[in-house]
Please model this.
Amino acid sequence: MSVFKSLITGAALSLAVATSSIAAGVELNASSTGLAMQGYDPVAYFTEGAPTKGDYRISSVYNDATYRFASEEHKAAFDADPEAYLPQYGGYCAFGAAMGFKFDGDPEYWKIVDGELFLNLSKDIQQRWEEDVPGLIARADDNWVNIESKSPEELQQ
Model:
């Protein structure tokens, strides 16, 4: 009987781990544990004007992803209006979305445009994106409709 219990417990644990790793869905760039924006505070971009690591003790869950904040005030602002602070394209790279792909958005390479937060993959990609921000946002917006529900792997086939 104890072998059977161990098998059931192992299966339940495996299912829980598998479910938590896909909880956020492919439309959000989150870690296997559901952590969004690599733990950076989404509100800080708007209030501090800089990427700021959040505190694991100050967090909120929105759309099955966990967001961390540098202060209780930032958490309260986010909780009141999450959509105002979330990065565009689910936190994936804005340049990548313009090209029809989903690449990690690095919270260190960012820009606020017309009150919206955009992340990019790297410094050189950010520089390329900044050469035509309005045009690339328009392309990414058009592409996002078709790629939002696809995994990054599906888009690279």
About this structure: The first strand starts at residue 55 and ends at 62. Residues 2-21 form the longest helix (20 residues). The chain has seven helices and four strands.
